[in-house]
Design goal:
The chain is 14% helix and 34% strand. The protein has two helices and eleven strands. It is rod-shaped, with a radius of gyration of 36 Å. A hairpin with a 4-residue loop joins strand 6 and strand 7. By secondary structure, the protein is of the alpha+beta class.
Length: 175
């Protein structure tokens, strides 16, 4: 009988230990919020200024200007014409010959945009917009585009003299 009581007592003690919650262990934590920044960086090649001699008697493509641009943020590329066309110097601008500019990716007609110099005079005309963050990440925001300049018809430029315009290409981050 004593053995039965002892076994019962041991069993009861084991049950009591199992039913008693274990002591909670001491624990502390510290959350650290991490942050960082990367400045927007856009590059246009060539940059600065340059010159190009336009054949005023040629209605076809005046050649190709290849422009490389990259931006690590969404961006736009725009064109603006100072005179809205080829301004005749001797007539103080009384004669102004408009021209067309076609911009395309790699000169393949991909994403081709065409605009007229007259529409680029008052404000820049956007020819490329890239707001695709994934594309910017995967391609480094790098693209190459071609600009083709052409005149509509020979009838527009029969006046002898000197002509000039300044076409400005602007790459701008959209942040």
């Amino acid at each position: 009988m004593k053995t039965i009581v002892k076994l019962a007592s041991v069993a009861a003690s084991s049950l009591m230990l199992a039913a008693t919650p274990a002591m909670a262990q001491d624990s502390e934590s510290y959350a650290i919020a991490l942050s960082g920044t990367v400045a927007s960086n856009c590059e246009l090649v060539p940059e600065g200024s340059g010159s190009y001699s336009v054949d005023m008697l040629e209605t076809g493509n005046q050649g190709v200007l290849t422009v490389l641009y990259s931006c690590n943020s969404p961006y736009t590329v725009s064109l603006q014409s100072q005179n809205g066309g080829m301004r005749h110097v001797e007539s103080a601008g009384a004669v102004n010959i408009d021209y067309d500019v076609e911009a395309s990716f790699l000169g393949l007609g991909i994403g081709a945009t065409s605009t007229n110099s007259a529409s680029m005079q008052a404000a820049p005309v956007v020819i490329v917009t890239n707001n695709d963050w994934t594309n910017i990440l995967l391609n480094g925001g790098t693209r190459t585009g071609n600009l083709d300049l052409s005149f509509d018809s020979l009838a527009e430029y029969a006046v002898a003299g000197t002509y000039e315009d300044e076409l400005t290409i602007t790459l701008k981050a959209n942040l």
